[in-house]
Amino acid sequence: MEQTNSTFHSCLLSTSVLCFIFFFMNFLELITTAKGNPSLVLTNETDHQALLAIKDLITGDPLGALSSWNHSIHFCNWQGVSCGHRHQRVTVLNLSSLALVGSVSPQIGNLTFLRMIDLGNNTFHGEIPQELGKLFRLQYLVLLNNSFQGEFPTNLTHCSHLRVIGVFNNNLRGKIPTELGFLSNLSNLNLAANHLTGTILLSIGNLSNLHRLSLVYNNLERSIPTQLGQLYKLEVLQLSINNLSGMFPTSLYNISSIYYFAIALNQLHGILSPDLGLTLPNLQGFYVAQNQFYGQIPSSIANATRLVEISLGGNSFTGSLPMNLGTLYALEFFAAYNNSLGTNHGNELMSFLTSLFNCSNLQHLNLAMNHFKGFLPHSIANLSTKITWLDLQDNYISGSIPRGIGNLVNLQTLSLR
């Protein structure tokens, strides 16, 4: 390097043919190197032109958000644009929540220094450009709450630094691209509320840094891969409202970091792990309603002391309710409607309602459509005064309604039909 610099400085003082050859050879070397690194060819003027191309395809800007995108202001000072200090290249494009309408220009792929794209909460439509695969520095891709159509780009494997992909609430179709399973730095994958079909990729189990996985509200089918049990850092699992079926993989019960567990409204079956609350101690939300689970509700669920919401309705659970839920001081929502809960012991419902005395934050209690028998206990008056919904309909409850129910001053819905 030192010898090359010395030759360069010497040539500045000479007009010899040798110096011409020196410069020509170095120019060829630069071109050759640039083929493997597009950022050496693209300049900040390239970024300028790419931004103008993006603006050209935005047909609606009711808030005038892009009024600063003109030649009188340097593009690094345009609204939503941030540049790096060293090269004056665009590193962030944040146009979220600006009521913009239009499509995204393929020239976005020329912004090769981009680390973050946030176009969320607008009305962008058309396909997500495949040219995003050129953005090898990209870490955050946020396109949620738009109207993007077509299939999700398949060439994002070049974006090996991606940490967040958020395309929640669009109109994407087709299958989840296999390539997503190779993005080893991904920590948040949110493809929820689209029209995706096919299966959950086995390779998602290789995303060892994944903290959040949301595929809720799609048309995914077949079983949940046991490989998801390898996601030891997972905190949020959202697979509800799909067409998933088969036995629920027990490997998922061993991810102790999960605090939000949602698999409701599928056709999954099996029993809940007897150690549920021990292996998932950080649970705050547990949603398995509208499936085909059976067996008993494990009493170990009370060991997950941070639980706020438990949704078990619309399954085939049998036996008694756990009598130790009173230790869940944060509990706000408990629903176990439309099961086969209850035994021949007439005081079972009384014991359960009495056990909830310490659940001072309880707001919603739904035990409708089960096999509970006996009288409504006077201890119903000791339920949380925050309760707004109490549903005990379609059981075998007799006797009279305790006068103390009037203590439930915030009650809005009472169903005993």
Secondary structure blueprint with pairings:
Layout: H1 2-11, H2 17-35, H3 44-56, E1 58-60, E2 81-83, E3 90-94, E4 101-102, E5 116-118, E6 123-127, E7 140-142, E8 147-149, E9 164-166, E10 173-175, E11 188-190, E12 195-197, E13 212-214, E14 221-222, E15 236-238, E16 243-247, E17 260-262, E18 267-271, H4 276-279, E19 285-287, E20 292-295, E21 309-311, E22 316-319, E23 333-335, E24 340-341, H5 348-355, E25 364-366, E26 373-375, E27 389-391, E28 396-398, E29 413-415
Parallel strand pairs: 3-5, 4-6, 5-7, 6-8, 7-9, 9-11, 10-12, 11-13, 13-15, 14-16, 15-17, 16-18, 17-19, 18-20, 19-21, 20-22, 21-23, 22-24, 23-25, 25-27, 26-28, 27-29
Antiparallel strand pairs: 1-4, 2-3
Report on the structure:
- The structure is a single chain.
- The protein has two domains: 41-309, Ribonuclease Inhibitor (Leucine-rich repeat, LRR (right-handed beta-alpha superhelix), Alpha-Beta Horseshoe); 310-417, Leucine-rich repeat, LRR (right-handed beta-alpha superhelix).
- 13% of the residues lie in helices and 23% in strands.
- It has five helices and 29 strands.
Comma- or semicolon-separated keywords:
single chain, 417 residues, alpha/beta, Leucine-rich repeat, LRR (right-handed beta-alpha superhelix), 15-stranded mixed beta sheet, six-stranded parallel beta sheet, 5 helices, 29 strands, 23% strand, disordered N terminus
Strand order of the largest sheet: 2-3-5-7-9-11-13-15-17-19-21-23-25-27-29
The span between the termini is: 87 Å
Unreliable runs: 1-41
Number of helices: 5
Largest sheet: 15 strands, mixed
- Helix percent band: 10-25%
CATH architecture of the largest domain: Alpha-Beta Horseshoe
